[in-house]
Amino acid sequence: MCHSYISLDRDNLAGEHLCCAISDKKHQDGVELKKAWLSERIPEGHVFRKLDARGKVFIEYAPLETAWVPVTGDNFFFIYCFWVSGSFKNKGHGKSLLAYCIEDARKHGRSGVCVISSKKKKPYLTDKKYMLKYGFEVVDAIGDYELLALSFDGQKPTFSESARRQAIEAKELTIYYSRQCPCILDCVRQVERYCSERHIPLNLIQVDSLEKAKAVPGVFNNYAVFYQGRFLTLQLLNEGHLKKVLAQNCDKIV
């Protein structure tokens, strides 16, 4: 089966959709922020490759040295997001996109490819079982979160020391977030509104530089939630998810 894919660049970025926020109007402000962020990252070697169709079929990766994640290592590519959904599943798209990334890494003389996953499948993270089929292995772990890598030369990346802290001094609900997912802005707005209406202390920390991303005190892919001083989740929180998190992690249901 012949598939047609395109990679975003500064020339086509404005006119192309971003797959995970195609028609949902509440995410359009987030789409514009993501496109601005991508425009800054593409010259650094950031790749956003997708199926040339109206669907959620894409892979997004970058050189680990410039990837906004608390992961360190020499000469790897880091996969931010890898997604095939709906009617596009089971048609070879995942295999094709991952093969492109791996071949791109080899072509650029990289030591391999890595990605954050988890022991059990979690929302917003690449599925571990799928990656293991293509030669990836667990090279580091923090709690339930795992760093997977396909190494060409035996080298292995690791989570940064800051990520291993998994804790902060502040006890209030604290969310680290970046602009690299178009869904984040609406989630931040929902959380901010909910907490304001109920007088729940909230600390929002925008990760707006590579240095800040590398130093986040917990596992971070583009979003990280802390409550009562400890790391809780990478999952984006809308109002509904926030209610569950607060109910599960405090003495009374908010």
Structure description:
The chain is of the alpha+beta class. It folds into two domains: 5-159, Aminopeptidase, CATH 3.40.630; 164-249, 3-Layer(aba) Sandwich (Glutaredoxin). It has six helices and 13 strands. The strands form three sheets. Strands 1-2-3-5-6-8-7 form a seven-stranded mixed β-sheet. Strands 11-10-12-13 form a four-stranded mixed β-sheet, with helices on one face. The protein has a two-stranded antiparallel sheet with strand order 4-9. The chain is globular. The termini are far apart. The mean pLDDT is 92.
Q: Flag low-confidence runs.
A: none
Overall geometry: globular
Q: Any idea of the CATH class of the largest domain? A: Alpha Beta
What is the end-to-end distance? 52 Å
Number of individual domains: 2
Number of alpha- plus pi-helical segments = 6
The number of distinct β-strands equals 13
Share in helix: 25-40%
Radius of gyration, Cα only, in angstroms? 18 Å
Q: CATH superfamily of the largest domain, please?
A: Gcn5-related N-acetyltransferase (GNAT)
**Proportion of beta-strand residues:** 25-35%
Describe the largest sheet: 7 strands, mixed
Q: Strand order within the widest sheet? A: 1-2-3-5-6-8-7
CATH-level-2 architecture of the largest domain? 3-Layer(aba) Sandwich
CATH topology of the largest domain: Aminopeptidase
User: What is the average of the pLDDT values?
Assistant: 92
Structural class of the helices, strands and pairings? alpha+beta
**Helix-strand topology string:** EHEEEEHEHEEEEHEHEEH
Domain YoaP-like: 201-244
Keywords: Transferase
GO molecular function: acyltransferase activity, transferring groups other than amino-acyl groups
Pfam families: Acetyltransf_1 (PF00583), YoaP (PF14268)
